[in-house]
Amino acid sequence: MSEEAQLKALRNRIDAIDEKVLELISERARCAQVVAEVKQKTLAEGEQPVFYRPEREAQVLKRIMELNKGPLDNEEVARLFREIMSACLALEEPLRVAYLGPEGTFTQAAALKHFGHSVKSLPMAAIDEIFREVAAGAVHFGVVPVENSTEGAINHTLDSFLEHDLVICGEVELRIHHHLLVGENTRVDKISRVYSHAQSLAQCRKWLDAHYPNIERVAVASNADAARRVQSEWNSAAIAGDMACELYGLTRIAEKIEDRPDNSTRFLIIGNQEVPPTGDDKTSVIVSMSNRPGALHHLLQPFHDNGVDLTRIETRPSRSGKWTYVFFIDFLGHQHDPLVKDALEKIRDESVGLKILGSYPKAVL
Length: 365
What we know:
The structure is a single chain. Among the domains are: 179-262, D-Maltodextrin-Binding Protein, domain 2; 274-361, Alpha-Beta Plaits, CATH 3.30.70. Helix content is 42%, strand content 25%. It has twelve helices and 15 strands. It has helices at 3-41, 54-67, 74-92, 106-115, 127-136, 155-163, 198-203, 205-211, 223-230, 242-247, 295-305, 338-350, and strands at 96-100, 120-124, 141-148, 152-153, 167-175, 179-182, 193-197, 216-220, 236-240, 251-254, 264-271, 281-288, 310-317, 325-332, 353-361. Strands 1, 2, 3, 4, 5 and 11 form a six-stranded mixed sheet that branches. Helix 4 links the parallel strand 1 (96-100) and strand 2 (120-124). Helix 1 packs across helix 3 (74-92) and helix 11 runs antiparallel to helix 12 (338-350). The longest helix has 39 residues, at 3-41. The protein is globular, with a radius of gyration of 24 Å. 37% of the residues are buried. GO terms for molecular function: chorismate mutase activity; prephenate dehydratase activity. Catalyzes the Claisen rearrangement of chorismate to prephenate and the decarboxylation/dehydration of prephenate to phenylpyruvate. It is found in: Cytoplasm.
C-alpha cells in the first residue's frame, strides 16, 4: 500500500472515531440535562438545587486517570475531561466564578484549570472583594491564591478567612512560568523599568540580578496590569505568564525566568457548600490558643497521637489582642474521618477557638 493510501485509510479511521466521540459526548450532555431535571423535581419548595459537586468531579477525574493507558498523559486526559464536564454542567446551570483580576492573571488560569472554560469567570480588584461576592451570593465560587512554593503564604487571603465565614470547597495547584515581555513599541536595548506583581518580582529576583541588575523594578497590582502597562511604553518590560502575553499581544524576549524550576502556586476554591468525603481529602482550620508555655505543643499533640499528617502551618496576628496569634493549619483527611474528628475535638477543648474552614478534595494534578 502506498504512503498516500495509508494516510487516506488512517484519516478515514480518525473521521469514524471522531463521529463516535461526538456521539458519546452528546449522550453524556443529554444525561447531564436529565440529572438537572431530576434534581429540580426532588427539591422542596424554596430549596435551591446544587448542580456542581466538587467531590463528584474529583472522583470522576481520579477514576479517568486510573483508567488511562496512554499515549496521552494523565494531565492532558484530565484537562480534556474537565472541559467536557464543564460544558455539560453549563447545560444545567452556568457557574459564576470570581477571581483576582484583571483578565490574564494566574488566578484566572487557576479558575479555568479547575472549572473549565464553560464557566463565567468574573475579575475582581482585590482578594477581599472575592470573599464578599461569594458571601453575598453574587457568584457561586471564588478562586484565591493562598501560597507560593517560593515566597510562601499570601497573607491577604489568610486574613480574609478571619473576617468571612466561607467554606473551602477545593484546591488548585498551578505551575507558574514567568516570561519577560515587551510590546511592539519597546526598544529592547533601552529597557529601564520592569513591571510585575511583588510576588513575581521576588520569584524572579536572581534572574533579574543576573540579566538586568540596574533596571527599576516596579510592583503593580497584578501581572496582567503589568502586561497592560508596557503596551504603550517604549522603555519598559513586564514579567507575566502565557495568558497575559496572549491577551495583550506582547512578545517574549526571555522565557521561564523564575528562579526555581518547580515554582508553583496553590489556590483555594471558596464557596458556601460543605463537601462530602472522597477518600483523598484535605482539611483547613484556624486555631487560636491562649498565650501560655507549651501552647503550640498542646495544639499539635492530638494530630501526632492520631497519625494525622500536617501539610502546612502558618501564624498570623490575631484580631483579639496585641502579640497574640492564630494558626492556619492544613492536614490530610476529612473532618468527618474518625481519627480527624477525634483530633479536632481534643484541639477544641485545648484552644480558645477552632474554626473549620472546610474539607475538600486534594488537587487532582
